[in-house]
Design a protein that fits this description.
By secondary structure, the protein is of the alpha/beta class. It is built from 14 helices and 16 strands.
Length: about 375
């Protein structure tokens, strides 16, 4: 069979298409699966003609609020290849299967993971990347009300040997949602510390960050993460400002393990239960600690549209989700403050020395002139 794999025209800048946050890893695993059963596959990243007449078209989906891009792809390929069966899978399809079927007009919705494909090494030859994505676990032990992971995936873990057999690159991105809850984490970190690929060490990153509550109970893990060459440390501060002594302790543990504060990020969910003023207090604490912020604007799991635009004033809930504790202007101001915050931390400059030129990387310090 001819299998066409499609990533819709999501609003992702061209320069970020191969960023680890957006790589269509599910499609790459499906490509490996269909090759294994002797089907011909091709990946289209966007809506364009295929090199063959497809028998099946497998379209991925990401966030529920990007549903319109999935619909556009379904309609495009339906008109282009009317005899092909069109199947939509991914996050939106799994969270809102009935909406996906009715709204996009696809022939079938695939919910959850394709178990056979999930065991295979993704077909990285279809994309141009210098890293490898690994799932050392699925699901999450936490059931945070704002998160869909525990609704999407059942908990399962891989051993250090299973992960080692998968690794084929010197740069690894773990897609694990709470890597430290893996009961095999100590042996995994030891394996990563000593593993060599092409006689070179590997470098690791965890896309979803680390659970500070586990680090607090087991500080030695921070030292083990450093030995395993994990970079871009991320810690989630999901709850109230009063939690700050605990968060400060997490930062201190990583600093004692050898990490620089300016290379530590604190995840912050905004446009949620805690209002602008509480989030600003949390941000100010992070500035005091000299750590960066990875911010995330909350959207409900059943939100099927998002037309947020930072350049447009006075947007409303008709444009995008605005929590009752927030306003459009507060959302945009907080995001602006976070950008300025991170520039100041990265350049080690006071708040008042921020400039747009620094943010755009056009600033040249005097000692370099």
């Amino acid at each position: 069979m001819n299998i066409l794999l499609v990533e819709p025209e999501f609003p992702i800048p061209a320069k970020s298409k191969n960023h680890s946050n957006f790589l269509p890893i599910g499609l790459l695993k499906l490509a490996a699966y269909h090759r294994k059963i002797n089907n011909t596959v091709h990946l289209n990243r966007g809506n364009s003609e295929a090199p063959f007449v497809p028998d099946k078209i497998l379209i991925t989906s990401l966030f529920t609020y990007w549903s319109k891009y999935v619909k556009e792809s379904v309609q495009y390929y339906k008109s282009k290849y009317p005899t092909a069966q069109i199947i939509v899978g991914g996050i939106y399809a799994t969270l809102l299967p009935e909406h996906c079927k009715d709204y996009t007009g696809c022939d079938k919705v695939f919910k959850g993971q394709h178990k056979s494909a999930d065991k295979l090494k993704p077909a990285y030859d279809l994309v141009n990347v210098d890293y490898q994505i690994i799932h050392g676990m699925r699901g999450c032990s936490r059931k945070c009300p704002f998160c869909g992971i525990w609704r999407l995936e059942k908990m399962s873990f891989k051993t250090s040997l299973q992960i080692k057999r998968q690794i084929c690159s010197n740069k690894i991105i773990f897609y694990d949602n709470n890597i430290l809850v893996n009961p095999h984490i100590e042996s995994i970190l030891k394996m990563l510390t000593h593993l060599r690929i092409n006689n070179k060490v590997i470098h690791c990153e965890c896309q979803s960050g680390f659970d500070g509550r586990i680090i607090e109970k087991w500080p030695a893990l921070a030292t083990m993460l450093k030995a395993a060459r994990f970079t871009n440390i991320r810690l989630a501060w999901d709850f109230a400002y009063e939690q700050y002594p605990q968060v400060e302790n997490w930062i201190r543990i990583f600093e004692n393990a050898g990490y620089q504060r300016s290379n530590i990020f604190i995840f912050m969910l905004f446009n949620w239960s805690f209002d602008y003023y509480e989030m600003e207090n949390k941000r100010l604490k992070c500035f005091e600690w000299a750590v960066q912020i990875a911010d995330c604007r909350f959207r409900p799991l059943d939100q099927t549209y998002d037309y947020y635009n930072p350049t447009i004033a006075d947007q409303t809930n008709k444009d995008y989700y605005i929590h009752s504790n927030w306003t459009d202007s507060q959302i945009k101001l907080f995001r602006k403050n976070v950008r300025r915050h991170n520039i100041c931390i990265r350049h080690r400059i006071p708040w008042e020395d921020y400039s747009r030129e620094r943010e755009l990387k056009k600033y040249i310090p005097e000692n370099y002139l």
